[in-house]
Amino acid sequence: MELLSAMHLDELSLRFSQINMYPLFDIAHYIISVLALKEQAGTADVAQRSPLACWFSAMIYCFGGAMLSSLLLAEPLIAPLSNNTNIFLASFIWYIVFYCPGDLAYKCFTFLPLRLVLASMKEVTRTWKVVGGVTQGQKYYKDGWLAIIAVGWSRGAGGGLMANFEQLVRGIWKPETNELLKMTYATKVTLIGSVLFTFQQRGSLPLAKHHFMLIYSVCLVVLKVRMMIGGPSMSPFAAFETLLFSSLFGWQKQSSEKGTSVLTAGKMSPTSSSAASANDVKESEERCSDPALPDTNANILETERKKSSISEEEDKNDNIVSKKKD
Q1: Which of 41, 56, 63, 240 is the most exposed place for a label (fewest CB within 10 A)?
Q2: For the purposes of burial, counting CB atoms within 10 Å of the CB of 54, is it exposed (0-12), middle (13-18) or buried (19 or more)?
Q3: Strand ranges for the chain from DSSP E
Q4: How does DSSP classify residue 142?
């Protein structure tokens, strides 16, 4: 806080935390969400076959976070759809993006400088959503840290977490695209923000709420612009995730790899193979010398001799019977 005051950012962060998201920032959020839907494979075909399904998918993209957080708080799932103004704005943007003649609206919104501005504004709304979810979760679960984090996470990244349900609306079932199996950048950064804001609300971080909102929003905007310009491969968490996974969850894999290498080396070693053959010879000699073990070959020969003698006696009896008949 002293550093921010020395940089004369105290008043700026306070005014920043008082910005109203309606209507400009909400419109930017709706535009980016609908653009993300339109760029999904097969969405254009769904928009022509069933505009209602396409519209419902767009509403999930726009209000999925509010829906999922309402579900976690035991509130009506469709409560976010009760705001007629926001529904009208989102529906109007959905219509012009999908059905504007010549695709003019889509081409305009995807113009890179404008899209960078809209994406930056959407990241600011993400901060407000996470803070709102954490604040609302703390009212219901005062000491439930995990529950508070879950509500803030779902509020900020609900559209991604509900991706499988949204795909079902469009007639697609891809369980391998589950957000928990392969988390996207937005889901990761929202989870981190939810954890940090929960700590801040509980007094574990020495930062005021408006200061932390400014810092978090600036980080989101910088990272988002960097990824949009440099490509999706420019993930800022790749090195940290690799280090964390190898430190916490890579021990079992390392031990299994070592065991496999030892077994492979043992199979390929000539010393081990010669030792194994010597052991086999020794065991066969012990079996032959042990009188308690049955001689399998001798038993087989004796059985065959008995069968041949029995067949010879039967032939003799048949000859005697035939002579008597004659």
Answers
A1: 41
A2: buried
A3: none
A4: S
